[in-house]
Automatic annotation (TrEMBL):
The gene is leuB. Binds 1 Mg(2+) or Mn(2+) ion per subunit. Mg(2+) binds at residues 225, 249, 253. The record marks 142, 192 as: Important for catalysis. Its EC number is 1.1.1.85. This is 3-isopropylmalate dehydrogenase. Its cofactor is Mg(2+); Mn(2+). Catalyzes the oxidation of 3-carboxy-2-hydroxy-4-methylpentanoate (3-isopropylmalate) to 3-carboxy-4-methyl-2-oxopentanoate. The product decarboxylates to 4-methyl-2 oxopentanoate. GO terms for biological process: L-leucine biosynthetic process. Pathway: Amino-acid biosynthesis; L-leucine biosynthesis; L-leucine from 3-methyl-2-oxobutanoate: step 3/4. Its main location: cytoplasm. NAD(+) binds at residues 77-90, 288-300.
């Protein structure tokens, strides 16, 4: 069988710096676990604009459609702030998400023991936390029509429309139920069915998909405002949370920050299964290009490395190797390795991006 294929798009700012560490991790799995990927690399964002005048070339887009998974660093930076909207670095990422139809955005909130005191919540509330928010990413109020600002009489009116079709709700709920089966088999669906018809439909369709296809998974429903409250009150009651684009945007940021630094947070965006059964997939850290620390060796590579761990788990069915990599990250944190973003008020000497990579490789060994 052919090796699984990966397209690496390091992008801008600290993207290439953190991706260099991921490449070493990928090489480690090739050398030590017989897990060899066909890796290709291309440009995205400002890096692509600088060379080609576009944030993503058609060739790079076509390549992304062909490979088993895409790994992306970050895009953007002040250098590109004044560019026309149509060629802004972010457009490269949006094009990937849209053309690959990546409707299911997975954002884990996992508390690494060594960082439990880093959270703004009490130690006991977050210690051992491991939840996954599944956010619908390609529809809902961010895309619904009608939209815009117009004049009614002598005042302006702003309009956005929350719109979901049955099939859009069905496919993201399937994605959540599939995930739950690989975890603690529990899904909580969040909407506002008490005040929104789209929420009523959401609740009905999630329940129908559950009853017909996933009766073995434990399903509950919660209003999203209560969900927000519960996330900070007792987050460990959840395993997988599935919700729409808008609520998911807010709830996933909230949940993610329960656990510490932006430099720690991975994500996956999944689409429909390809011919080989693997989902269309793009993995990326949640953070941006961090221009304030670019080129200084200060970036924390863990978010990007954990994004590769998600690829192992969700694209390549390599759950054991994903556990191994996540365990290595736990290990180095427990041993006290800290990049600058993980320094607490007590201070200490931070290690560099490469030194964090070294530590993780040593832990893998
Ligand atoms: P950012 O995530 O790049 O940085 C926010 C803060 O967190 C900065 O102080 C940064 O130094 C720090 N930080 C982020 N990642 C870190 C890491 N791995 N290690 C250590 N510290 C880290 O967000 P910001 O500053 O709002 O945006 C900067 C640029 O990135 C903008 O051009 C923005 O449009 C772009 N961006 C791109 C994203 C993407 O590619 N998916 C997501 C968010 C922002
Ligand atoms: Mg957001």
């Amino acid at each position: 069988m052919a090796n699984p294929s990966l397209l690496i798009l390091p992008g801008d700012g600290i993207g290439p710096e953190v991706m260099a560490e991921v490449r070493r991790v990928i090489d480690w799995f090739g050398a030590n676990k017989g897990l060899t990927f066909d890796v290709s690399e291309d440009l995205v964002g400002g890096a692509s604009y600088d060379k080609h005048g576009t944030p993503l070339t058609d060739a790079a887009m076509a390549k992304a459609q062909e490979v088993d998974a895409v790994l992306l660093g970050a895009v953007g930076g002040p250098k590109y702030d004044d560019l026309d909207f149509s060629v802004k670095p972010e457009r490269g990422l949006l094009r990937l998400r849209k053309e690959m139809d990546l409707f299911s955005n997975l954002r884990p909130a996992q508390c690494f023991d060594a960082l439990a005191d880093f959270s703004s919540l009490k130690h006991d509330i977050v210690a051992g936390l491991d939840i996954m928010i599944v956010r619908e990413l390609t529809s809902g109020v961010y895309f619904g029509e009608p939209r815009g600002i117009h004049k009614e009489g002598n005042e302006r009116v702003g309009i956005n429309t929350q719109r979901y079709t049955e099939s859009e709700i069905a496919r993201v709920s399937r994605s959540a139920f599939e995930l739950a089966r690989k975890r603690s088999n529990k899904v909580c669906s969040m909407e506002k069915a008490n005040v929104m018809e789209s929420g009523v439909l959401w609740r009905d369709v999630v329940q129908e998909i559950h009853d017909a296809e996933y009766p073995d998974v434990e399903l509950s429903h919660m209003y999203a405002d209560n969900g927000a409250m519960q996330l900070v009150r007792a987050p460990k009651q959840f395993d997988v949370i599935v919700t729409d684009n808008l609520f998911g945007d807010i709830l996933s940021d909230c949940a993610a920050m329960l656990t510490g630094s932006l430099g720690m947070l991975p994500s996956a965006s999944l689409g429909l299964p390809m011919a080989n059964g693997r989902p269309k997939a793009l993995y990326e850290p949640v953070h941006g290009s961090a221009p304030d620390i670019t080129g200084q060796g200060k970036a924390n590579p863990i978010a990007c490395i954990l994004s590769f761990a998600m690829a192992l788990r969700y694209s390549f069915d390599e759950g054991d190797n994903a556990d191994l990599l996540e365990g290595a990250v736990q290990q180095v944190l427990a041993d006290g390795a800290r990049t600058a973003d993980l320094m607490g008020p007590e201070g200490g000497t931070p290690i560099s991006t490469t030194e964090m990579g070294d530590a993780i490789l040593a832990a893998l060994d």
